[in-house]
Structures
1.
Amino acid sequence: MVKHIIPETLSEALKYLYQGDFQIIAGGTDLMVQNRSWSETPVNFTKNMLYCFDLLELKGINVIDGRVEIGAMTTLETIMNHPGVPSLLCQAIGEMASPAIRHVATLAGNIGNASPAGDSLPVLILYDAWVELRNMAGFRMILLKDLIVGPRKTAMHPEEMIVKIVIPIHNFDFESYIKVGGRKADAIAKVSFAGAVEIEDDKIADIRLTFGAVGKTVIRNETAEGAWIGMTITELKTGIWRLIDMYNQLIQPIDDQRSNKYYRKTVAINLMKDFIDRL
Amino acid sequence: MAIIKFTLNHKQVIVNGDPNRRLLDVIRNDFNLKGLKEGCGEGECGACAVLINHQIVNSCLYVLANAEGKDIITIEGFAETKRFAVIKSAFETAGAVQCGFCTPGMIIATESLLNANPHPSEAEIKIGLSGNLCRCTGYNMIVEAVQIAMKAGEGLW
Ligand SMILES: Cc1cc2nc3c(=O)[nH]c(=O)nc-3n(C[C@H](O)[C@H](O)[C@H](O)COP(=O)(O)OP(=O)(O)OC[C@H]3O[C@@H](n4cnc5c(N)ncnc54)[C@H](O)[C@@H]3O)c2cc1C
Ligand code: FES
Ligand code: FES
């Protein structure tokens, strides 16, 4: 028999996780669909479930010391409407699902689900977001890009849970997020792109480019980005073919029913090219 | 088994049962409130919408365990309000109801939107209704209905 536990505190939740074999459920918008059963019957969860959505300790947003900390059970709509949350994240969330889903779904759930098409991931990885994981013994911080290791695979241990997402605040001079999907509100991304550039003394001081839904995980390559630091925007624009070459090699989309890989790759490269053209 | 307490249409209720039931089934079967419908059963259509703490939510994706302590209003409860009367007459005026299957969800979406933003632009109305599908009207009449309700109900939201 599958067990169902509704813990009242975080430490109680962590105790159950330590006992093993529990799955965390937050808003449930992924898990309810993945474990869907016949109408009028309970959802067919196959693991022991730990219902954490109402853990108050994990709700809320704090802006402190140049970073934004988002509690794991904060809903997407709350995050999107918070003035301290970086703009690209608000924009990416605004294009996820519909209000009815966003009132329930969480950022931790989007991360925990680790879908190659998870729409918050390209933007969070662009911002160098960290995830705070906790277990009974303590906590550790891990960069989101190191937490997600493959499609639906994370580096989280079974007795750990996400308690916070921590985003360093960084003031870029140019930022852009674009998602190409089908029906806007409910479309799972076919391709998405996020870009940001910071200029100092007319030179590129920081450039970050991420691509979603075109590989097993988000594509970001710090070596390719680093090649442009110290150059001017004009140099970047005249060198765009070299940039395109770099990403043509880095982007290796997987085929699925949503769109074929040549289409995805072409769109991804074009989105980046548009971003550079508009700088 | 678990005991889950919440308010449903302003009444305190207690459900004793599997916490992994869908809120949709609990409301339709245990409380015999059939205004919300099951369309897709996976969050795409909005026919099953309810208000939880004044915000639209799809009850087909909402697990009973998460209902603890919430304030839940269905179309039957909302139908008792002045706001509903305004929205209903706006939907009639705009011809926004054909077969009616999507209508309870559309009305819940309208209330959720106007409650958060009493003066939405056309683009904001479209976002507000974006989780609700209608196979009949082609949506323009529904957008118009929201605009009529917004004006006629000035001060109510
Ligand atoms: C109609 C519809 C449209 C959608 N549109 C989009 C879209 O446009 N873009 C997009 O990216 N997604 C979309 N989704 C998917 C989903 O809504 C998101 O992934 C959402 O962020 C999941 O959050 P949740 O709280 O509901 O997760 P849940 O379903 O509760 O959990 C998802 C996973 O995360 C794990 N998890 C949750 N919280 C934690 C935690 N604190 N610590 C560790 N693990 C945890 C769970 O164990 C589970 O594996 C859509 C879903 C639906 C039904
Ligand atoms: S039945 Fe719930 S959204 Fe379609
Ligand atoms: S009126 Fe028929 S589905 Fe909307």
2.
Amino acid sequence: MALDDIYDSILGFDAERTAELVRAELAAGTEVRAILDEALIAAMDEVGVQFSEGVLFVPEMLMAAMAMKGGLEILRPHLSASEAKPAGVVVIGTVKGDMHDIGKSLVGMMLEGSGFQVIDLGIDVPAERFLAAAEAHQADIVGLSALLTTTMPAMQATVTRLRERNAGPRIIVGGAPVNQDFAERIGADGYGEDAPGAVALARRLVADR
Amino acid sequence: MHAPKVSFLPPDKIAVMRGKVLELLEQRGVQMEHPEVTRRLAKAGAAVDGDTSNVRFPAAFMEEVLARAPKRVELFGRDGAGRLEIPRPEGGFLLRTGTGAHGYLDPETGSYRKVTAVDAAAWARLADGLAEVDFCAFPFIDGVPVPSADLHGLMAVLGNTGKHAWIQPYTAESIEYLLNLAAAAAGGEQALRDSPRVSIVATALTPLSVKFIDLEVIRLASRFGVPVHACSLPSAAGTAPITMPATVLMAAAEILALLAAAQVMEPAVPVIATPLVFALDMRTGRGLQSSVEAMQGAAAAVQLMKQGFGLPTHTYGSGTDSPVADGQSMAERALLGLLTGLARADILGGAGQLEVATAISPVQLCIDDELAAMTRRLLRGLEVDEDTLAWDELSAVDPGGHFLATQHTLRHCREGFLPKLFTRLPRDAWETKGEGDLTARAHERCRALLSEPAPEPLPEDTRKEMAAIVAAADRRLAGTG
Ligand code: B12
């Protein structure tokens, strides 16, 4: 069945083929909802399981997610507002004074692969930019990364600044010197030790809202 | 004496990679964010893009930089004595302790906690007492003002060991204070310049850029005449391509860009190529320093920097991805140290560090001292001559005879390596003696070293001057003190 082919193309990390097949299904008049649920979402659920079991590796997981995203973009014009909604909106960045990039990027990409809309602000991001982006994108979650003890105070200051807004987003933090204890002390909503941990955390926080 | 070596790169591949490094620097270039440095680079012949601060280095320009780069480096102990020459007279390596870690495995309680100022002082005293350790870096101290934490770290090192100190600044603002502190300990800027008792690290912001702080390190190091460890920390599959040859190539390009920057600031300042190679675990994305791939990368990077570019070279020779000083830790650091030692690195770093350079253990440092002694001995290799072939002895031996008490054995019987910590006791004797395993014995050694009288303190005036510098940094950088 053609929906199976879409599913397989995602698990085969073949973004081009996924796009082709999704277009073909739409043209053939297959129900949009079925393409979304039975092919795209089903495939990403399987990718998630296989990644957590160590079957799929990081780049495979990310490429599968990109294939799925490509398919979703093609479907988007045909989806209702609620169907097109991401799992949640995440604004992520490395805090002011800190240039460590790759851990934050990995967390961002994995969140994206898990259905979140991610706005990556990059490195050395001042509190004001987090705040502005969180408001502009109506973020559900703000993710802060710090790899230096010297920038942990900036992380704290950013949390404080974000908290000044009522109904602010949930805040998650991570990075080598950060731990659960520090996260609690600065009033963050959660600490993620690694990228899969960050995804689980983000899912839980969004579900709790 | 034949010096054993490992080779990951055959000569023709070194030549290919050398060419590609120069090509990458000429065509892609490295972004460098420091107006003064880029201005001087432009004046010297590099192509600087004013909008992006990308600097491209013509190959001929880079060849000149390489030709002029000092090939020998001399480092000194805190008091101007204890000269350390690079390259090492016997082709061996200098041993440096781990830097920047915030976690501490307390030798007394065995628990994990943050590093305190007291721990940092003990760390430096251990480094002072351990014969194989040549220079000491400072960990990240908790409980002091954060913006001047690096000054407290350097203070702990300079106050507790007479050995050479390595400086890893945490912010651009603290660099000058750190170098002033080193100058004060040396008895003045001239003394520091004449016999550099500290050296300092400048790292690239992989991939292919260098931020202000690190070019500021170079600017100030050249002013103070302090040697620079030009460092690249690529993470394969993250900030660098996944294949090690490409990761090594990129690291080399970044290091040469730092070298060029140092040279336009002050041609005489020695630059030590310092590739520290990481690789991401493809199952989780975790950064690793002692995976098989990272070790291969380290050895290949040393070879390229030394044989391809003729530069003094520094990399990790110790450290583990394990969070504890367990069997994995011992195995990983033994493999890494032997490999990078055999690649003929001039400096091996990371002694005492655990958990991908985020934690240190005094017990592990004592074990690393022993491992370094063994590695040094291994690297010396074998002499093959009339005497070591023992031809007369072999010709004269009778069937059923032995060599226990010959003149030849007598002459050589004290040459073998004798470990201080490794046991050679059989089961019963080991149990009777009750000295525990390697970790327990290393712990004993750690205690014994720390109970010895502290090293000669610096003169009181010097200590006062140094304390004033740290206090000023606390005040101006942290607004405290
Ligand atoms: C590579 C590296 C660099 C590179 C970064 C290159 C780049 N483009 O990113 C460079 C060379 C630029 C660099 C610079 C410095 N570094 Co550095 N660096 C590292 C190193 C070796 C690895 C970091 C890394 O990339 N890890 C791999 C990624 C995948 O893991 P990760 O970042 O930890 O992220 C994971 C988790 O932490 C978590 N996570 C991360 N962020 C977030 C966010 C959220 C929301 C969540 C939920 C989870 C999460 O999930 C991620 C994925 O699993 C670490 C050592 C270490 N073990 O951490 C030192 C380290 C962090 N650096 C250190 C230091 C001191 C510095 C410098 C000050 C040194 C100097 N003078 O040059 C400068 C500071 C520059 C600045 N202002 O930021 C120290 C920090 C000590 C401390 N406690 O403060 C460390 C520990 C090394 C050391 N022992 O000295 N560094």
3.
Amino acid sequence: MAPEPDVTSLSNPLATVEQLSTSSSQLDGVPPDLENSLRFAGAQLTQAAGILLRLPQDIIAQAIVIFYRFYVGSEGGSFRINALKDVSAASLYMTAKISFVPQSTRSVLNVYAYLTSSTSPLRQPSETSAKPNPESYYLSEGSYQSARATLLQTESILLRALSFITQVTLPHHLALTYLQTLGVLPPTPTVKSTALAARTLAYLNTGLFSPQLLYLTHQPSALAVAAIYLAAREVGVRLTSAEWWEVFDVDREELGFLVVGLGSCEGWIKGEKGRWLGKSCPLTLEELETEL
Amino acid sequence: MTSQTKSRWADDEEDAALEAQRKREKELKKKAKAEKQRKLEEEEILRKKNFAGATAASEDGVSAHDEVDAELGRPSKRRRLSPEQDQARVEPASAKPLRFPAPEWGPCRHVDNFEKLNHIEEGSYGWVSRAKEIATGDVVALKKLKMDNAIDGFPVTGLREIQTLMASRHENIVALREVVMGDKLDDVFLVMDFLEHDLKTLQEDMLDGFSPSEIKTLLLQLTSAVEYLHSNWILHRDLKTSNLLMNNRGQMKVADFGMARYYGDPPPKLTQLVVTLWYRAPELLLGAEKYGAEIDLWSVGCIFGELLTKQPLLQGKNEVDQLAKIFELCGIPTEATWPGFKRLPNARSLRLPNTHQTTGAVIRAKFPLLTNAGTALLTSLLSLNPAQRPTASEVLTHPYFKEDPRPKSTAIFPTFPSKAGQEKRRRVASPSAPKRGDAPKIVGDAADFSGIFADRDEEEVGGGFALKLI
Ligand SMILES: Nc1ncnc2c1ncn2[C@@H]1O[C@H](COP(=O)(O)OP(=O)(O)OP(=O)(O)O)[C@@H](O)[C@H]1O
Ligand SMILES: [Mg+2]
């Protein structure tokens, strides 16, 4: 029905150089390494909560981008002031609220109580899955009310910090369109074309967790092109026309950077998981203070 | 233009002075914009350099980067000689990537950056006032969002209003400049470009309404905004003359996104509690849970009719009366003209006469001065069956706009007498957008509307013709 969507709807606001050079958390004494870990822990927490709430992956991914945006720059939020678990919950709650799948404060808070409890699967990344202990995450009416107040207040703080820019455009859909345009996604899928599409999306999903905040520094079109580049190389699909990325308005330099960024992401995540093996990355303010 | 209309909209000295002032301001703004664009470009370059630097710093990065460089068939970045050389490299225009100025985020500014001038209007979702940005002297409109139903945190309507308006950049949609806050976390204001008039008040103040060529221009502007919204999967859901703003340069801009939201295909379940009653499509009144862009085109049809007669077209007193007024003008739907309508929730309780009303004749009778093409367009916009309504794009290419009189160019559009003080707009009572919690169902006593068709289809009256709610 509708003609081509307007180009502006395919772009995202990007972090400024100033916002990338420092952050509130660093100014508050959080070392950059730990800051990366906290960001990753927050993204993982959001992802896990989204899955428990049965939210579609695009809503979860948007919430993760919102979460990142909040903590960027000297005027953004600080991990020492706004607990990552609260900001994660508010990002997910707010993103779901404006989507087709709004969630009640009750279900969001129940899930976060569980995921931040001592028996949370996030606290035991290894396979030693002890039975979750309901006692440790049951939300009484009293604690629900105070958690709810925190959630709603954090939502306001989040919105103010983002100057109400809640729009997040993801590259996934675009990447599939590009694959079609490139003629490598035939109407009747082949083993190779299926693998190509799957790997492209996998690179985009992993890239969401990049410590380089790729989703905050590059437009969806560039992310899509880089993921296709990596996937095609891996699956062994030749994209015939030379410099095909220029068709999608992505220049060589940006592509080169993103290919490295997306390509190294999986390794970084592995390292990060190893780093916190046996203990848990701090999810609450108190835990962070102890860590510091 | 006749001499009568000339006196109404004469370009007097004051207007000329205003025009000159406007030009000067425009020049200044242009300069500021160019400067900003230059800065953005510089930042973009810096950003890239920064990242390249960051990658080069990690050992992994260096080797990986070189590898990719080799693959992509370009000299490694570190081997580049000097920035001057870089600049000298001439890129073919076609290969140059397009850059769209993306907004940035940062904390909201305080509303204290604006000086309130006067109140404009209090609506159902907030109040609006005219204000001046202290730093720039720009006159803007400030709309305060109402927060009263804050049990679920920030009201979703406000979030959507901001989200959809922010995503809409079109010359016929009011520009949202930024969102600012007051002292409390829930004092939230939209800062918009200020427009001198709204179409409803403007029309009420006019002696004999807009000329046919002006109506075409207004309708084209409205429809191109609607086309833009729909192509971006946004439903406005509250199109009406009081939400259409006008400046003194013949430009119309759609405002009030308080009901707007993203939608999908297939349409998701959405609330039927949308659109001010007089502009509400029949499928909404009948309780359809799934609806789409067609509801906005119904409203466009109502606005078209209103521009022609200077009167809201369908002034129902309540939902049932609204439906009766619609059927009176457009005929009774049948399974043939609107397959499946009987299964809509509120249609089940509606007993409709079994007749074959035609719609064309009544619309034509009500608008005797409208040409055939105009009548055809209005009739199609007011199709009871949403599937028969044209899309916004189809409206834009309708023959009505190609026949004489042609749409008046906005450049020679009359400038309306500027109410310099922009005092509070006089408002004739009319229904407002539905609030959450209004009952969407048509309930109540059986209503008999047999009378309304009396002069339309006399034979049928004798046959127990009645529109009944049972
Ligand atoms: N940018 C603007 N410039 C000038 N006037 C404006 C502007 N925005 C809104 N107004 C005026 O304020 C009125 C109310 O604005 P708006 O429709 O956005 O608010 P609302 O509270 O949603 O109203 P309602 O519920 O009555 O539709 C408009 O009809 C118009 O007269
Ligand atoms: Mg309004």
4.
Amino acid sequence: MRVEPQFLPSTEAVEPIRLLDEAGRLAPGAEAPLDPSRTLEALRFMMFGRAFDARCWSMQRQGRLGTFAPITGQEAAIMGSAMAADPARDWLVPQYRELPALLRHGYPVERVVLYRQGHPAGGFVPPGVRVMPYQVSLAAQLPHAVGIGWGMKLQAQSGVAMVYFGDGASSEGDFHESCNLAGIVDAPVIFLLQNNGWAISTPRSIQTAGSDIASRAPAYGFPGVSVDGNDLMAVYLVTAQAVERARQGGGPTLIEAHTYRMGAHTTADDPSRYVDPETEKGWARRDPILRVQRYLAQLGEWSEDRDAQWRKEIEADVDDAFERASRFPPPRASDLYEHVFDEVTPALARQRRWHLQEAAGGDEETG
Amino acid sequence: MAEMTMIEAIRSALRLEMERDERVIVMGEDVGQLGGVFRATDGLRQFFGPSRVVDTPLAESVIAGSALGLALTGLVPVIEIQFLGFAQNAYHQICQQLARSRYRTRGAQPAQITVRAPFGGNVRTPEFHSDSMESQFAQNTGLKIVMPASAPDAKGLLLQSIRDPDPVLFLEPLRGYRMISGEVPDGDYTVPFGALRTVREGSDVTLVAWSGSVPVAAEAAELLDAKGVSAHVVDLRTLVPLDEAGLVAALERTGRCVVVHEAPATAGFGAEVVALLQEQAFYSLEAPLRRVAAPDSHYPLPGVERDFVPGAGLVVRAALETLEA
Ligand SMILES: Cc1ncc(C[n+]2csc(CCOP(=O)(O)OP(=O)(O)O)c2C)c(N)n1
């Protein structure tokens, strides 16, 4: 007997959900899920993110910052989702391109400056701020987010965990293990996949032979959504609904935000070796920041004057971020010996004395 | 002979072996179109095509694990793990599956696979990119551990690794990729495993190092020279197999020894070297054996990495202490 498999590969990608077109016009009949003041709030973070990138890029080129990953092009995916999270009860678990989301959630910007300067103090998370630090080891943050969501659920808290990751990271085993457990324990987790088309030089087509990464969700027993990641309104709408569902005990959602990395992977990358400039130009027309500004202009909430004014204010905010970071004392060799264990081990104390040429019996602070 | 950087020497070995042996395939993250994030595989795609120079999905465990399957079908995989820190995502596959395959099949299914990975500090990388993890791998028997410190060795040892019938972890010192260069012989040659290299002859104290720590030991030897101390410097080249007789002979030259490595001290490979010398050369010792290693901390953010990675100054201090002992 010849049998037909019941589960066939989905070959056609679904149309991502979209509310704003490239000209910033709301889809016919659609209602804006963010009012003008919240839209402006999101836009401010988006513009800050891009300005901060530009400043960091030039400082990196001057040798004053280490390698970092810009967010340019991905601002709507980042802020549309972050706007749906409540800093007082929800957790944000980033990969490494989510700067403005972290800031809205209460993470101090000077810590990001310090981190990029390579200062050990850059890792500190102030008490009460519900974020984890940047994650460089791809997909390693996904299991943590499942634990956070699950833990809140076990303790009958209403928070959700929003975890960000890339299309490349979705190929790691940790992605599968995390979705699987989140589905089983019905953890309130929003898996926010920023599909920016690339993992360094590797295109999405080499990460999976499937059509949409979001289409994997039903196999784990929860819903998946595909959304235009350069559309602030659409990303907000689908994330807010997923957050609401998770709060009501409806479990996880996998959101695939289709966006584009407009530029290099990091300051160490040379995308001219693999990116077709035409593709890049096409995405530039879909710039997520311009789209929001055009939308707001139609409401009379955005003008050239306001744009100029904001840019000036944002430059001052960026100056301020660096200024605040500069008030930290420079890193010290002794930083290496602190926070390794709760209490310093005899070996570490001995090593510290020898490396730093400290007198025996000296101050072995555990800090 | 041609003057080459280490990365060029590695690239020339890959190209030579892929030309010589059509079973060899190269695979990993960004190795094809981009030519690797450090360009170790640059140009190979043009010569050998996308089915022999394979861009993989971002998934270290399946890169390593599928290499075992590929090897069972008669291919000779050379896989790249983009940074050694991420090899831990493939740790089980490399250390338990690849390394154990020969043993558990009583020789029927050996794993002729080379795992290349860069590692090592002082190049201002993000977190997890710089850790020295050789001793973690060295405890898994069945896996050979090759750590060149010179350009000609990088080529000759890589050719030997690819041809070796056992799985080999071939570790490349990141900061040496372009900083280390030297005369590299043309054409085909191999450097045997388990034969250390004498970097410099000396009579007062023996400095033992491998990979990125060899230039540190060599610099320390220069500084010691200026203080009237003659240092004998050896480069282990391979940790597994280890040149035990060569190490004992190097110790016997001076009776004093400082081992230098970039990994943290506790359970670092320096402990193995020191234990071996204590067991096999006890009566030649003139002073306690010393290790200069990173402290038992985590590889830090770049702002303090120079205080973490042992530099020549610490090696000099330890060497002088052994001379005072
Ligand atoms: C486990 C692991 N493997 C490899 C790397 C090296 N690496 C850093 S970023 C990157 C690509 C990531 O792509 P993606 O997840 O799509 O995120 P994006 O950078 O595009 O935002 C790679 C391969 C890493 N950081 N972690």
